[in-house]
Amino acid sequence: MGLLRYWYDFLFILFPKTCGACENVLIHQEEYICTTCSYHLPFTDFHQFPTNPSAKKFWGKIEFEQAVSMFYLTKSSLVETLIHNIKYNNRPELAYFLGQKYGRILKKSDFSDGIDLIVPIPLHSKKLKIRGYNQSLHFANGLAESMEIPCDDSLLKRKINTVSQTRKDRLERFENVELIFECNLSSKITAKHILLVDDVLTTGATLCSAASCLMEAMKCKISFATIAKA
Ligand SMILES: [Zn+2]
Protein backbone atom coordinates (compact mmCIF):
# COMPACT_ATOMS: atom_id res chain seq x y z
CA MET A 1 0.00 0.00 0.00
CA GLY A 2 1.37 3.43 -0.97
CA LEU A 3 1.95 6.30 1.44
CA LEU A 4 -0.79 8.32 -0.24
CA ARG A 5 -3.31 5.68 0.67
CA TYR A 6 -2.38 5.92 4.37
CA TRP A 7 -2.77 9.70 4.18
CA TYR A 8 -6.25 9.38 2.65
CA ASP A 9 -7.26 6.81 5.26
CA PHE A 10 -6.11 9.27 7.91
CA LEU A 11 -8.19 12.10 6.39
CA PHE A 12 -11.12 9.70 6.15
CA ILE A 13 -11.07 9.29 9.93
CA LEU A 14 -11.02 13.05 10.53
CA PHE A 15 -13.79 14.11 8.21
CA PRO A 16 -17.38 12.92 7.65
CA LYS A 17 -17.49 10.06 5.22
CA THR A 18 -19.91 10.61 2.40
CA CYS A 19 -20.32 8.74 -0.86
CA GLY A 20 -18.54 10.52 -3.73
CA ALA A 21 -21.38 9.74 -6.12
CA CYS A 22 -24.67 10.16 -4.16
CA GLU A 23 -23.28 12.09 -1.15
CA ASN A 24 -25.12 9.97 1.43
CA VAL A 25 -23.19 9.14 4.58
CA LEU A 26 -21.19 5.94 4.16
CA ILE A 27 -21.78 3.03 6.49
CA HIS A 28 -19.12 0.90 8.13
CA GLN A 29 -16.69 -0.77 5.70
CA GLU A 30 -17.88 1.27 2.72
CA GLU A 31 -14.99 3.14 1.11
CA TYR A 32 -15.42 6.45 -0.77
CA ILE A 33 -18.39 5.16 -2.80
CA CYS A 34 -21.42 3.43 -1.24
CA THR A 35 -22.44 -0.11 -2.10
CA THR A 36 -25.53 0.98 -4.06
CA CYS A 37 -23.58 3.45 -6.22
CA SER A 38 -20.73 0.98 -6.73
CA TYR A 39 -23.29 -1.43 -8.11
CA HIS A 40 -24.83 1.17 -10.45
CA LEU A 41 -21.68 2.89 -11.77
CA PRO A 42 -21.63 2.57 -15.58
CA PHE A 43 -18.30 0.82 -16.26
CA THR A 44 -17.43 0.88 -19.98
CA ASP A 45 -15.23 -2.23 -20.21
CA PHE A 46 -13.52 -0.43 -23.11
CA HIS A 47 -10.23 -2.24 -22.37
CA GLN A 48 -11.85 -5.35 -23.82
CA PHE A 49 -12.67 -3.63 -27.14
CA PRO A 50 -9.80 -1.84 -28.94
CA THR A 51 -12.27 -0.17 -31.33
CA ASN A 52 -14.30 1.41 -28.53
CA PRO A 53 -16.01 4.86 -28.49
CA SER A 54 -13.08 6.48 -26.65
CA ALA A 55 -10.57 5.19 -29.22
CA LYS A 56 -12.81 6.43 -32.03
CA LYS A 57 -12.46 9.99 -30.67
CA PHE A 58 -8.79 9.87 -31.69
CA TRP A 59 -9.15 8.17 -35.05
CA GLY A 60 -7.69 10.26 -37.84
CA LYS A 61 -6.30 12.80 -35.39
CA ILE A 62 -3.23 11.14 -33.92
CA GLU A 63 -1.25 7.92 -33.95
CA PHE A 64 -1.90 5.99 -30.73
CA GLU A 65 -1.98 2.47 -29.32
CA GLN A 66 -5.14 2.18 -27.18
CA ALA A 67 -7.69 4.45 -25.50
CA VAL A 68 -9.94 3.61 -22.55
CA SER A 69 -12.32 5.36 -20.17
CA MET A 70 -13.49 3.93 -16.88
CA PHE A 71 -17.11 5.21 -16.96
CA TYR A 72 -19.72 6.66 -19.28
CA LEU A 73 -20.53 10.26 -18.34
CA THR A 74 -24.12 11.39 -18.87
CA LYS A 75 -26.08 14.40 -17.60
CA SER A 76 -27.44 14.36 -14.01
CA SER A 77 -25.80 10.99 -13.30
CA LEU A 78 -23.77 9.45 -10.48
CA VAL A 79 -20.63 9.88 -12.59
CA GLU A 80 -21.40 13.56 -13.13
CA THR A 81 -21.58 14.09 -9.33
CA LEU A 82 -18.43 12.01 -8.90
CA ILE A 83 -16.48 14.12 -11.40
CA HIS A 84 -17.87 17.34 -9.89
CA ASN A 85 -16.75 16.28 -6.41
CA ILE A 86 -13.33 15.34 -7.71
CA LYS A 87 -12.82 18.62 -9.57
CA TYR A 88 -14.60 21.23 -7.51
CA ASN A 89 -15.36 19.89 -4.02
CA ASN A 90 -11.84 19.18 -2.85
CA ARG A 91 -12.10 15.40 -3.05
CA PRO A 92 -8.96 14.32 -4.92
CA GLU A 93 -8.93 11.10 -2.88
CA LEU A 94 -11.90 9.94 -4.98
CA ALA A 95 -9.78 10.21 -8.12
CA TYR A 96 -7.01 8.23 -6.44
CA PHE A 97 -9.46 5.56 -5.27
CA LEU A 98 -10.91 5.22 -8.79
CA GLY A 99 -7.40 5.06 -10.24
CA GLN A 100 -6.51 2.17 -7.94
CA LYS A 101 -9.72 0.36 -8.82
CA TYR A 102 -9.33 0.87 -12.57
CA GLY A 103 -5.63 0.01 -12.44
CA ARG A 104 -6.48 -3.38 -10.99
CA ILE A 105 -8.91 -4.01 -13.86
CA LEU A 106 -6.42 -2.86 -16.52
CA LYS A 107 -3.56 -4.87 -15.05
CA LYS A 108 -5.55 -8.07 -15.45
CA SER A 109 -6.07 -7.35 -19.19
CA ASP A 110 -3.66 -6.96 -22.10
CA PHE A 111 -4.10 -3.20 -21.91
CA SER A 112 -1.14 -2.56 -19.62
CA ASP A 113 1.32 -4.68 -21.66
CA GLY A 114 4.35 -2.60 -22.63
CA ILE A 115 3.27 0.60 -20.88
CA ASP A 116 6.31 1.83 -18.94
CA LEU A 117 5.26 5.28 -17.73
CA ILE A 118 2.04 7.04 -16.66
CA VAL A 119 1.77 10.79 -17.25
CA PRO A 120 -1.17 12.95 -16.11
CA ILE A 121 -2.39 16.00 -18.05
CA PRO A 122 -1.07 18.94 -16.03
CA LEU A 123 -3.13 21.92 -14.89
CA HIS A 124 -1.86 25.41 -15.57
CA SER A 125 0.00 26.70 -12.50
CA LYS A 126 -2.67 29.40 -11.92
CA LYS A 127 -5.46 26.84 -11.93
CA LEU A 128 -3.43 24.52 -9.70
CA LYS A 129 -3.00 27.33 -7.20
CA ILE A 130 -6.76 27.96 -7.08
CA ARG A 131 -7.81 24.30 -6.91
CA GLY A 132 -4.91 23.14 -4.75
CA TYR A 133 -4.49 19.83 -6.56
CA ASN A 134 -4.48 18.24 -10.00
CA GLN A 135 -7.25 15.64 -10.10
CA SER A 136 -5.66 13.87 -13.08
CA LEU A 137 -2.45 13.38 -11.10
CA HIS A 138 -4.39 11.72 -8.29
CA PHE A 139 -6.13 9.40 -10.75
CA ALA A 140 -2.74 8.67 -12.36
CA ASN A 141 -1.16 7.91 -8.97
CA GLY A 142 -3.92 5.42 -8.20
CA LEU A 143 -3.44 3.74 -11.60
CA ALA A 144 0.32 3.70 -11.12
CA GLU A 145 0.05 1.98 -7.77
CA SER A 146 -2.13 -0.92 -8.85
CA MET A 147 -0.58 -1.28 -12.32
CA GLU A 148 2.90 -1.15 -10.76
CA ILE A 149 4.09 1.33 -13.38
CA PRO A 150 5.85 4.61 -12.44
CA CYS A 151 4.01 7.92 -12.73
CA ASP A 152 5.72 11.19 -13.63
CA ASP A 153 4.07 14.61 -13.48
CA SER A 154 7.19 16.66 -14.21
CA LEU A 155 7.44 15.71 -17.88
CA LEU A 156 4.60 17.84 -19.25
CA LYS A 157 4.01 21.49 -18.54
CA ARG A 158 0.99 23.55 -19.53
CA LYS A 159 2.21 26.87 -20.88
CA ILE A 160 -1.12 28.44 -21.79
CA ASN A 161 -4.11 28.72 -19.48
CA THR A 162 -6.94 27.88 -21.86
CA VAL A 163 -10.04 30.04 -21.56
CA SER A 164 -13.61 28.84 -21.94
CA GLN A 165 -14.04 27.20 -25.30
CA THR A 166 -17.74 26.52 -25.22
CA ARG A 167 -18.56 29.08 -27.89
CA LYS A 168 -16.06 27.77 -30.39
CA ASP A 169 -16.77 24.96 -32.77
CA ARG A 170 -14.96 21.65 -32.61
CA LEU A 171 -12.37 22.38 -35.27
CA GLU A 172 -11.40 25.71 -33.75
CA ARG A 173 -11.01 24.04 -30.42
CA PHE A 174 -8.50 21.66 -31.90
CA GLU A 175 -6.41 24.55 -33.26
CA ASN A 176 -6.70 26.40 -29.98
CA VAL A 177 -5.10 23.66 -27.90
CA GLU A 178 -2.43 22.74 -30.45
CA LEU A 179 0.45 24.35 -28.60
CA ILE A 180 -0.59 24.48 -24.98
CA PHE A 181 1.98 22.00 -23.63
CA GLU A 182 5.74 21.79 -23.48
CA CYS A 183 7.97 18.90 -22.57
CA ASN A 184 10.46 19.16 -19.72
CA LEU A 185 13.35 17.11 -21.04
CA SER A 186 15.65 18.06 -18.20
CA SER A 187 13.82 15.40 -16.16
CA LYS A 188 15.93 12.79 -18.07
CA ILE A 189 13.09 10.28 -18.08
CA THR A 190 12.93 7.69 -20.81
CA ALA A 191 9.84 5.80 -21.85
CA LYS A 192 8.86 3.67 -24.82
CA HIS A 193 5.12 3.66 -24.22
CA ILE A 194 3.38 6.33 -22.15
CA LEU A 195 -0.13 6.12 -20.75
CA LEU A 196 -1.51 9.66 -20.84
CA VAL A 197 -4.20 10.27 -18.23
CA ASP A 198 -6.98 12.87 -17.89
CA ASP A 199 -10.26 13.21 -15.99
CA VAL A 200 -12.88 13.50 -18.75
CA LEU A 201 -12.62 12.71 -22.45
CA THR A 202 -14.76 15.11 -24.48
CA THR A 203 -13.31 16.08 -27.88
CA GLY A 204 -9.90 14.59 -27.13
CA ALA A 205 -8.20 17.81 -28.18
CA THR A 206 -6.26 18.30 -24.94
CA LEU A 207 -5.02 14.71 -24.89
CA CYS A 208 -4.04 14.93 -28.58
CA SER A 209 -2.06 18.09 -27.92
CA ALA A 210 -0.21 16.57 -24.97
CA ALA A 211 0.37 13.33 -26.87
CA SER A 212 1.97 15.00 -29.87
CA CYS A 213 4.19 17.01 -27.54
CA LEU A 214 5.37 13.82 -25.81
CA MET A 215 5.78 11.80 -29.00
CA GLU A 216 7.89 14.48 -30.59
CA ALA A 217 10.15 14.90 -27.56
CA MET A 218 10.36 11.28 -26.39
CA LYS A 219 9.87 9.30 -29.65
CA CYS A 220 7.46 7.09 -27.70
CA LYS A 221 4.13 5.35 -28.24
CA ILE A 222 1.02 6.73 -26.55
CA SER A 223 -2.13 5.26 -25.02
CA PHE A 224 -4.93 7.17 -23.29
CA ALA A 225 -6.97 6.59 -20.13
CA THR A 226 -9.64 8.83 -18.58
CA ILE A 227 -12.01 8.51 -15.64
CA ALA A 228 -15.02 9.16 -17.86
CA LYS A 229 -16.07 9.58 -21.48
CA ALA A 230 -18.61 12.31 -22.19
ZN1 LIG B 1 -23.63 6.46 -3.12
From TrEMBL:
Q: Please list the residue ranges annotated as the Phosphoribosyltransferase domain.
A: 136-228
Q: Which Pfam families match?
A: Pribosyltran
Q: Spell out the SUPFAM superfamilies in the cross-references.
A: PRTase-like (SSF53271)
Would you identify the family this protein belongs to, as annotated?
Answer: Belongs to the ComF/GntX family.
Q: What is this protein called?
A: ComF family protein
Q: What organism, scientifically named, is this protein from? A: Sphingobacterium hungaricum
